[in-house]
Amino acid sequence: MCPRGSAPLKHCVHSRNGPNLTTRQLATSHVCLGTAASHGTQQGKEKVIVLTGATAVGKTKASIELAQRIGGEIISADSVQVYKGLDVGSDKILPAERGGIPHHLIDILSPHEEFSAGDFFERARTATADILQRGKVPIVVGGTGFYLRWFVHGRPQTPASSPESAQRVQELLTQAWEKEAAAEHGALTSEQKWEAGRQLVTSLGDPGSAERLAEVPGNWYRLNRVLEILLSTGRPLGELNLDVEAPLDYDFRCFFLNRSRLELYRRIDARVEAMVCGGLLQEANWLLGEGLQADAKCAARAIGYRQAMLFLQRCRGDPSHVTADNLVQMVRDVQAASRKLCHRQLSWFRDERLFKWLEGDRPVGSIVDDIVADFSSPVNPGSSHDQGMLTKEQERELRMYVTQLSHVNDTDIQQSLLQEVRCMIAKPPMVA
């Protein structure tokens, strides 16, 4: 019998931060940080905390205790948690788990809406000013490096999109597709159209952006925006980089939580299994029911949702695809994509000089102690410039790394998940 409703399976417990972490008692002697006047440095700039790290490192627990300790409010810098209904796959912190701490930029958009770095900048900066005005400490938490760079250094002056520029981009893409179709002597697949679009970016003088677009296949919003900027400015996006040497308007205290790469990979793999068992497929099915297809919007391109939606679409098109092997492969695909994201995050923040790296494999209270101490200091500690590098032995361990499934390889769990998939494809959800 098909389970009623869309309640998530309970075969595995969905734990936000992997293995439970021991939390130290809050410090008995508080530094008084709860008023706006105490946030300023000797230069009079108000302090803003930025807490980031690779996916699954343990940012959420640390941010909650930090906010409780210093009278802070949290601004989410997560590109998926902005969407309503995407809870399990984004590892969204539930209201009951927030410890009474206000959270901003969570559940603010429909999955049908796009969300860009520019959108984040405007909303996050507005929230920051509001939090400071009320005498609280803004704590920006998330792992989206592009968002955080713009948030700290300001957004570059790029031309606004317009109906005219969008039409010009579409005309150029159509011409590129027609030329490619003639060369192929037939209609193009969506993948071929995407590659033709990337080649167009290269031909307009921005091979760097074309290479970065290869990491987000199907993100037409981003490709179109790159083309609009190229047509408007005639310059590669790399030449529109932020001036990271310019004075900052706030005293940003930036921290990067880190763990050994091997431990991060294990935590990521365990989290993905927990998400699949805890409701990811149901949320992906809901997105399909909203009329979205994989890669169609930002929400449907997100890691986890994209793979789960593709899996369900294939199962719906061919019921013989509903097998344990294909289910396990979907899980492995999400794990692999998440580990690649982890690698990109580590590489990105290794070069960010404002970020002080902190070891995350210790009690949360100890991590928060270090952050509070640096926050209280009149001097910004910044980066030591030698963080996150792997030894040869660590590189060898990672090359030999193999995912060890702990839940989805269980026959009973597989059959329960597959039965739920059969129910989903037997009665496709009504398109909103």
From TrEMBL:
<dbReference type="InterPro" id="IPR027417">
    <property type="entry name" value="P-loop_NTPase"/>
</dbReference>
<dbReference type="GO" id="GO:0009691">
    <property type="term" value="P:cytokinin biosynthetic process"/>
</dbReference>
<keyword id="KW-0808">Transferase</keyword>
<dbReference type="InterPro" id="IPR018022">
    <property type="entry name" value="IPT"/>
</dbReference>
<dbReference type="Pfam" id="PF01715">
    <property type="entry name" value="IPPT"/>
</dbReference>
<keyword id="KW-0819">tRNA processing</keyword>
<keyword id="KW-0460">Magnesium</keyword>
<dbReference type="GO" id="GO:0005524">
    <property type="term" value="F:ATP binding"/>
</dbReference>
<comment type="similarity">
    <text>Belongs to the IPP transferase family.</text>
</comment>
<keyword id="KW-0547">Nucleotide-binding</keyword>
<dbReference type="GO" id="GO:0052381">
    <property type="term" value="F:tRNA dimethylallyltransferase activity"/>
</dbReference>
<protein>
    <recommendedName>
        <fullName>tRNA dimethylallyltransferase</fullName>
        <ecNumber>2.5.1.75</ecNumber>
    </recommendedName>
</protein>
<dbReference type="InterPro" id="IPR039657">
    <property type="entry name" value="Dimethylallyltransferase"/>
</dbReference>
<keyword id="KW-0067">ATP-binding</keyword>
<dbReference type="GO" id="GO:0006400">
    <property type="term" value="P:tRNA modification"/>
</dbReference>
